[in-house]
Amino acid sequence: MRYLSYILSLFLFLFVSCKGEETLSVPSFIEINNPSIQFARLSSSQTCKVNTNVDDIKCEVASGADWCKANYANAELMITVTDNNAYQSRTGCVTLSGKEMKATVTITQDGKGDSIEQVGSDLKIAVKDASSSSNQPGEEIEKTLDGNPATLFHSPWVANE
């Protein structure tokens, strides 16, 4: 009897332990290292790193943002914007999607009234040394030597009539 229970126990142990191996599934994910990107008003491009385990990723620019182009390849998202000649800034979205996962980047581009790096089509530069023969009261040239390109120098002017 003991012998029979020993065989049954061994058989039960082998039957239970020989189950097929279970595979663990890793959830799909798409992560963009910078979910919000700011552009100056002139055309330029920026690249973001993308961390994902999804193979077939589609890249889509939101409708109405025809000023923005995006391309995904080799774990990088490249976003290119055209000049913004409007006074106001503009905003758009780029979405990466695949395997029912989505990640979105918000794109904002300065307008003519927002950009501190540019005046018209010129770039502002840091002032190292300057002199002037006249200025608006309280707006002396020395005040522009603070290292901030947003600081403006105002010289006197007269409108032509």
Protein described:
With 161 residues, the protein is mainly beta. Helix content is 10%, strand content 34%. The chain has one helix and ten strands. The protein has a four-stranded antiparallel sheet, with no helix packed on it. The chain has a four-stranded mixed sheet with strand order 2-8-7-4, with no helix packed on it. Strand 7 and strand 8 form a beta hairpin. The radius of gyration is 31 Å and the shape is elongated.
At a glance:
The longest helix has 16 residues, at about 1-15. With about 160 residues, this protein is mainly β.
The proportion of residues forming helix, as a percent range, comes to under 10%
Question: How is the biggest beta sheet arranged?
Answer: 4 strands, antiparallel
Strand order of the largest sheet: 1-3-6-5
Query: How many β-strands, per DSSP?
Result: 10
What value does the average pLDDT take? 78
> What sequence of helices (H) and strands (E) makes up the elements?
HEEEEEEEEEE
Q: Structural class given helices, strands, pairing? A: mainly beta
Described by the principal axes of the CA atoms, the overall outline is elongated
User: How far is the N terminus from the C terminus?
Assistant: 121 Å
Tell me the Rg in angstroms: 31 Å
Contiguous uncertain segments of 5+ residues? none
Q: Compute the number of helices.
A: 1
Q: How big a fraction of the residues is strand? A: 25-35%
